[in-house]
Every structure is written in structure tokens, then in C-alpha cells.
Amino acid sequence: MRVLGVDPGLTRCGIGVVDGGLGQPLRMVAVGVIRTPAAQETHLRLHALRGELEQWLQRYQPDAIAVERVFAQANLRSVMGTAQASAVAMLAAAERGLPLAMHTPSEVKAAVTGSGRADKAQVTTMVTRILRLDTRPQPADAADALALAICHVWRGGAQDRLQRAAAAARGGAR
Questions:
Q1: Residue 52 is a catalytic residue
Q2: Of 4, 53, 89, 120, which one's alpha carbon is 20 to 30 angstroms from that of 62?
Q3: Is 107 a catalytic site residue?
């Protein structure tokens, strides 16, 4: 399974691609950050984000997209930009017919570190270990995108199998 992880943001949108499956070693395919200028109008920033995201989708051909679920913050402007950026990734999944998973920050932290309260440094350290990287992915947005992809490979793959089994059981009961 190849998963594109997206840590949404207007100024810095972390993006990472991971290959692997349950019981298999995971491998980082690519990681980066899509940046847009803070002084630019929001609709132009979203358009630029969409263009770069499309290039990643075309180049890496993921099987699924995992996006961080937006959570409430005190800074309304920040949460709005994050929500708008996540909508771009959600729309890209819909347009390509790709499965989309939304994972909360605590769910991702728990999957990668074992604790839903881990800090960014702990997440980055574990992402580096899990993917057997020589250097830590920087900035934190890039590491977070890889953590989202790892979380989905480990949790999403199991969820997909459960849903298929449940669907097969319903079909067999008819």
C-alpha cells in the first residue's frame, strides 16, 4: 500500500509518501513541504497548494490519502487556513477516486509513539526510526506528514480489511 500523508497548512503543508503494509517494513518514498507566501491572497495560496499536490499525486500514484483532522484551536485564523488546506487534499482524493482517511493528531501520535500526548520531537524521532532514515525529516510538518502516512498504513489497512470482511458477511447472510 502506498499512502500520501498530508499535514495541512497554508504557509507550510507537510507531505510525505510511505510504502508498506501490516507486518512489512515501511519505506519512505518521498517527503517535502509545500510552501505558500503568507502575504498572498488565500485563494491564490490554495490554488498553488492544489497544483503542487496534483504533481505529487501524479508522480507517486498513492493508493490512499491520509490527512490530519482539523481540531479546534484558539487561533481562528490558523484553524481556518488549516481547514481550507485540508479541503484541497480531500477534494484531490475525491477527484481521483482515492480512499481518504482523516486521523486526529492524538491518533497519529499514539500510532507512531505509543502515546497520544507525544510532542513533535518524539514523533520525529519515531518516524526516523520506523522508516530507518539516516536523517530526521525537517521541518516538523514533513515528519508529521510521514507520521500520518505510517498511521494509515498501520491502522487504515486493518480498518479496510474489517470493512471488507463485514461487507462480505452481510453479503453472505442474504
A1: no
A2: 120
A3: no
In 3-state terms, what secondary structure has residue 7? Answer: strand
7 as an active site residue: the answer is: yes
Sheet order of strands, 12-19 included: 27-35, 12-19, 2-7, 64-68, 100-103
Give me the catalytic one of 7, 41, 107, 144. Answer: 7
Q: How many helices (H) and strands (E) does the chain have?
A: 6, 5
- What span, in angstroms and rounded, lies between the C-alpha atoms of 156 and 100? 10
CB atoms inside a 10 Å sphere around CB 109: 23
Question: φ and ψ at 60, to 5 degrees?
Answer: -105, -10
Choose the catalytic residue: 134, 141, 144, 160.
141
The predicted-structure confidence for 51-85, as pLDDT tens digits, reads as follows: 999 999 999 999 999 999 987 666 677 788 899 99
